[in-house]
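One thing: can you check what follows?
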Amino acid sequence: MLERESGGPGTTSSKNLSGGAIASLTGIGVLLVFIVQNTEDVKFHFLFLSFTWPLWLYTIVTAFFGAMVWFGLGVMRRHQRRKERRENR
């Protein structure tokens, strides 16, 4: 008796990575290399504030806020598309 594999056309395996996952992992790897190589302190002047931070911490904070903006724009886009679909019904 022959056994069939559970994967076929139209099915995905959990072992395969999507393009977005590969891009995200690559970006995280590049970010980690940048952080390891840039450990000096930098001084910031913003309005009336002046402070010193390690460059690696600034990089993490900036990457986090950038990811939140990117995620937020994606949520807003999905919401707008759902709204348009409802209106077209």
In short: The radius of gyration is 22 Å. Residues 55-88 form the longest helix (34 residues). The beta strands are 41-46, 49-54. The CA atoms of residues 20 and 26 lie 10 Å apart.
